[in-house]
Amino acid sequence: MATLSLRNLVKTYGDTQVLHGINLEIGSGEFVVLVGPSGCGKSTTLRMIAGLEEITAGEVHIAGRVVNNLEPKDRDIAMVFQNYAIYPHMSVRKNIGFGLRTAKISAKDKLGRLEEVAEILGLGELLDRKPSQLSGGQRQRVAIGRAMVRNPAAFLFDEPLSNLDAQLRTQMRLEIKKLHQRVGNTIVFVTHDQVEAMTMADRIVIMKDGHIQQVGSPLDVFYNPANMFVAQFIGAPSMNLMPGVWSNGAVSLDKGGLVPATGVKIRQGASVVLGLRPDDLRVTQEAGLFTGTVEVTEPLGSETLVHVSAGGQEIIAKAAGKHPPVLGSSVHLTASPDALHLFDKNTGEALL
Amino acid sequence: MRMADTPIQAPTQSLLADRTTGPRRSHGQYIRWVLLMFGGIVMVMPIAYMLATSFKYSFEVHTLSLIPQEPTLENYLFVLEDGRFYTWFGNSLFIATVTTLSNVLFDSLVGYALCKFRFPGRYIFFIAVLSTLMIPTEMLVIPWYLMSSTLGWLDTSWGIMFPGLMTAFGTFLMKQFFETVPDDFLEAARIDGLNELQIWWTVAMPLVKPALAALAIFVFLGNWTAFIWPLIVTTSQDMYTLPVGLTTFSDEVDVEWELIMTGAAISTIPTLIVFVIFQRFIIRGVVMAGLKG
Questions:
Q1: Beta bridge partners of A208
Q2: Given CA atoms A124, A126, A130, A134 in this order, what sign does their dihedral have?
Q3: Which of A169, A235, B184, B287 could form a disulfide with A81 if both were Cys (CB 3.0 to 4.6 A apart)?
């Protein structure tokens, strides 16, 4: 286990700057997920930690030492790749043992470690198989095994679940989380899937265009998004965002409607964006914040997503799964005052 | 903690059923087969004629018959009893083998470097390598001869081999194949502590085996049958390769075709062995490289 520290990390390709001074402290044994859309710089950051990309400026510290000029093999890290990177010409045994080729330990210890890892990952009976004889999940476990066997200071995962089908992805997500709880190593995990980030991370780092947008626990970034980007990126479906003008403790929405929003210190007449998560909106028959017509319903079983057209804007709310509102019916939407989010329309920063 | 996973399911449908109930052959398919058979016959004909001639007496070699009127093994006995034949065979085998190993080693090294490393001038270097493919051998033999003469390599094995120890074709072929090796494999090995040479040898090379086999057979066959350059660079019969040696069976007044054909027939044996061993790799290699034989 080791701490990781990124200090003012910058990456440029020619004239294009892709990382703009990333600062991040990762505690020993922490499970940190870097999440963001394609091109946000999350994989580049991970590859710079691994030593697979040159660092243009800034420093990477692993276990307290600067590793900028160290080769990947000297950084005491292990990495699991998106396409597993297990060698097709080697058996599972050789693939897992590959990481120990250069380790300065006895053959007996190597064998012991290999068997221990195989046992943990449930690969004991597959050791003599070739990767082509394994399922996607088994291949992913072999890749994790090859990383584990070296007992590195930190694990780096680069979108390792992207190639798996939805069911297997859910299963592997759980298994990796259990594995972390068992071995306790520091993990930096890159994904573009916010569900993966929410379910696995101790802390989530949300990135966009080479900048960190917010760092926090899954619940923190969900309930207290730092800006509009985070508010929209985290949570499915995305937060409803409605532009308006704030004055006298209420937001007058551009497309009609007045929503009380107190406790915010901004100037009268400021342009703002009101945010409401679909989870926080209740569909009622009594008067509420919005009144509209049900245009689409998406039954998900336990709940139903209801798309309501209210004053020219579409609002998504979650309703009960068993008795969803009838299509075309008129409904009211309401939310508790503490569920409101308010953002500065110009900067996107959270105001409330 | 043991992790469960869905095992790979075996296909349940019988493949045999597909075969027995397969679609009917169309007329077009029969026409294609006939054309292919005709092409095959055209290609096999010279080899059949070579074999037939090797069993003929000299009076019969100018008849077009594929079946000798009086079959004989005398030609084979004569050629095999001629000690020079073994020398030429050995020279050809040595030169073809060394050149093949050299190409497999160096072409793959250069191809790997051009494919997987970023360095200034990489593209220009690759274009320069490729451009040498456009220069015909006939234009190169004079500079090669002058080099050999200057360096004292005339009439030596080294002199015969040096122009072919690395080839632009082989470098190009290997570079194209290394493109199919994912960078993640190399990066994983880098993190696992291997140096670049170990990564090339342990990870990349086993993944391009079909290409190596295709390259090996192309180079072996090319050098086994090479004629012009060995003819120019060698002067003593002891240094002749097999194709050059076989020309000694002809002179200004007489050409002993039956002996030449016998020598040629024997010389095809190593190439047939190489082909049979590497056949599946060759087909895969050629298909993947998009090459014609």
A1: A211
A2: negative
A3: B184
B150 & B206 share domain:
yes
Tell me how far apart the alpha carbons of residues A144 and A121 are, in angstroms, rounded to a whole number.
8
For residues B250-279, average pLDDT: 83
Same structural domain for residues B54 and B142?
A: no
A97 interfaces chain B, CB cutoff of 8 Å: no
Q: Closest-CA residue in chain A for B209?
A: A89
Which helix (H) or strand (E) is A232 found in, with range? helix A228-233
Nearest C-alpha in A relative to B10: A133
Give the pair of three-digit tokens for residue A351: 């105001």
Residue-wise pLDDT for B4-51, tens only, equals 444 444 444 444 444 455 556 788 899 999 999 999 999 999 999 999
Strands (E) across chain A are located at: 4-13, 16-26, 31-35, 57-62, 65-66, 77-80, 154-158, 186-191, 203-208, 211-216, 240-247, 250-253, 258-260, 270-276, 282-284, 290-299, 303-310, 313-320, 330-334, 341-344
> Which DSSP state fits A229?
H
Among A271, A200, A266, A192, CA closest to A234 = A192
Helix, strand or coil for residue A176? helix
One domain for residues B97 and B57? no
Give the CATH fold of the A240-344 domain: OB fold (Dihydrolipoamide Acetyltransferase, E2P) (2.40.50)
Q: How far is CA B55 from CA A179, B51, B63, B86, B156, in A?
A: 75, 7, 13, 20, 34
Tally the residues of chain A.
Answer: 352
Q: What residues in A contact B192, CB-CB < 8 Å?
A: 73, 78, 98-99, 101-102, 146, 150
Torsion of CA B140, B143, B144, B147, to 10 degrees: -170
Would you state the structure tokens that stand for residue B138, as one six-digit string?
């006939």
Q: What is the CATH number of the domain that holds B93?
A: 1.10.3720.10
What gap in Å lies between CA A98 and CA A84, rounded to an integer?
A: 14
B206 to chain A, any CB pair closer than 8 A? The answer is yes
Judgement on whether residues B165 and B282 belong to the same structural domain of the protein: yes
Domain A4-233, what fold? Rossmann fold (3.40.50)
In total, the C-beta contacts within 8 angstroms joining chain A to chain B are 79
**C-alpha to C-alpha distance for A190 and A33, rounded to whole angstroms:** 6
More confident residue, B150 or B59: B150
Neighbours of A106 (CB within 10 A): 9
**Cβ pair B144, B229 in contact under 8 A:** yes
Chain B residue closest in CA terms to A77: B191
Say how far apart CA B102 and CA B171 lie, in whole Å.
12
Residue B175: give the domain boundaries. 83-289
Q: Extract the tokens encoding A118.
A: 């195989």
Q: Is the CB of B192 less than 8 angstroms away from the CB of A146?
A: yes
pLDDT tens string B78-123: 888 888 889 999 999 999 999 999 999 999 999 999 999 999 999 9
Q: pLDDT tens digits for A323-344?
A: 888 899 999 999 988 899 999 9
Contact residues on chain A for B206, CB-CB shorter than 8 A: 87, 89
